[in-house]
């Protein structure tokens, strides 16, 4: 469409960070590469990453979640995507199941497929896509090896509360009784530092022992193309040492080998500095403006609190408009918006018809133009 000469395209489909990395990250990388760098800093290292970087991460995450995280609990990875694949490879046998609240980041399907595992989406009954521990309990079977959580969530923006995570911990302890192979929580949290009011996002690390935590700096440092993330295995997990070692091994055998060396070394110079983060207010302002405009058109959505995605529910007038294959009307609305040169993703792609997924990592004029398109098709 961009090439058709018919004008700009308002693309709300991709979650590609629009904010540039912070200046202190640029300076750190330049200084690390400056003359006088000690030799050997660009070679292979231990597959789990540079020990001094893992030590830094262990201290930082330990302080954040009140845990005694050790260097051997940390594995540096090629983004969160690399971390998830490494953990899946380490834990899952063919036919094993991964339970995930729906809607969910659609790449999870492919990651499960990579390891011949089955993704089991669970649609909860709670408003605002809050975590529904009872629904998860009902979905856990003999073959479940992983409960996969993502908070703040892509696509819904939901943040799981400490109370719900505690309740999930109880569910998982019950479900784990008598099992030969343990049931892991894999927590995928690349948006935890994009909370608009800066408040603490509870982690399952604070509420349960069998947890492998994953994050990356694709979003909070705007480094999606540089591929840097890590795993923290809870120091309280039974078999945690083995899982962390297996994750290091799978980093190698899946072909990642190790996380990018320069990106690892830059992290201690950036994380923890007040200016060492993108300005989330830019995403917040976009989300607020779009949410307000959509509510005026009859869409349903909770006030956005984190990240850069919105997952509005369509007004009832769209139900059934797309025919039998599109019960929620979200595919019909996606098509209608495309006619107005505005690109969105139907909720059906995330397993939840009747919604749209909108990415707000765009410049503000794109939000305005997209709202004009929404008004035109919803009028
Ligand atoms: C929920 C979720 N998990 C994982 C990823 C992958 O992130 P990374 O770029 O760190 O691999 C994304 C990227 O959009 C995401 O939204």
How does this structure look, described?
The protein is an alpha/beta fold and 379 residues long. The protein has eleven helices and twelve strands. A seven-stranded mixed sheet has the order 2-8-7-6-5-3-4, with helices on both faces. It has a three-stranded antiparallel sheet with strand order 9-12-11, with helices on one face. Helix 4 (107-114) links the parallel strand 3 and strand 4. Helix 3 (79-91) packs across helix 7 (240-253), helix 5 runs parallel beside helix 6 (162-176) and helix 9 packs parallel to helix 11 (364-378). It is globular. The model has no long low-confidence stretch (mean pLDDT 96). Pyridoxal-5'-phosphate binds next to helix 3.
From the N-terminal CA to the C-terminal CA, the straight-line distance is 24 Å
What is the helical fraction, as a range of percent? 25-40%
The secondary-structure class comes to alpha/beta
The biggest sheet, with number of strands, parallel, antiparallel or mixed sense and barrel status, is:
7 strands, mixed
Q: How many distinct helices?
A: 11
Mean pLDDT: 96
Using the alpha-carbon principal axes, give the shape.
globular
Rg calc: 21 Å
Which blocks of ≥5 consecutive residues have pLDDT under 50?
none
């Amino acid at each position: 469409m961009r090439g058709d000469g018919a004008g700009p395209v308002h693309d709300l489909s991709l979650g590609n960070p629009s904010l540039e990395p912070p200046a202190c990250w640029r300076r750190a990388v330049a200084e690390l590469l400056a003359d006088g760098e000690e030799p050997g800093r660009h070679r292979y290292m231990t597959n789990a990453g540079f020990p001094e970087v893992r030590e830094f991460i262990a201290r930082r995450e330990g302080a954040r979640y009140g845990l005694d995280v050790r260097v051997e609990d940390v594995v540096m990875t090629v983004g969160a995507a690399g971390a998830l694949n490494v953990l899946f490879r380490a834990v899952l046998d063919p036919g094993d199941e991964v339970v995930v609240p729906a809607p969910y980041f659609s790449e999870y399907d492919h990651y499960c497929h990579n390891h011949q595992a089955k993704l089991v989406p669970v649609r909860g009954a709670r408003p605002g896509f809050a975590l529904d521990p009872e629904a998860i309990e009902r979905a856990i079977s003999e073959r479940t090896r992983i409960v996969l959580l993502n908070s703040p969530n892509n696509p819904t923006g939901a943040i799981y509360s400490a109370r719900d995570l505690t309740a999930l911990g109880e569910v998982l302890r019950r479900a784990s009784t008598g099992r030969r192979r343990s049931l892991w929580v894999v927590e995928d949290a690349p948006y935890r530092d994009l909370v608009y009011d800066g408040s603490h996002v509870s982690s399952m690390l604070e509420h349960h022992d069998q947890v492998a935590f994953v994050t990356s700096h694709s979003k909070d440092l705007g480094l999606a193309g540089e591929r840097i993330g890590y795993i923290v295995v809870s120091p309280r997990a039974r078999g945690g040492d083995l899982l962390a070692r297996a994750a290091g091994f799978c980093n190698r055998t899946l072909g990642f080998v190790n996380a990018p060396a320069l990106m690892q070394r830059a992290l201690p110079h950036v994380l923890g500095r007040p200016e060492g983060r993108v300005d989330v207010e830019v995403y917040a302002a976009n989300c607020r403006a779009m949410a307000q405009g959509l509510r005026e058109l009859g869409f349903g959505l909770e006030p956005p609190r984190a990240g850069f995605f919105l997952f509005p529910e369509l007004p009832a007038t769209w139900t059934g408009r797309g025919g039998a294959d599109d019960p929620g009307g979200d595919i019909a609305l996606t098509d209608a918006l495309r006619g107005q040169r505005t690109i969105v993703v139907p909720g059906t792609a995330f397993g939840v018809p009747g919604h749209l997924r909108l990415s707000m990592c765009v410049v503000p004029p794109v939000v305005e133009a997209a709202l004009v398109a929404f008004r035109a098709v919803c009028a």
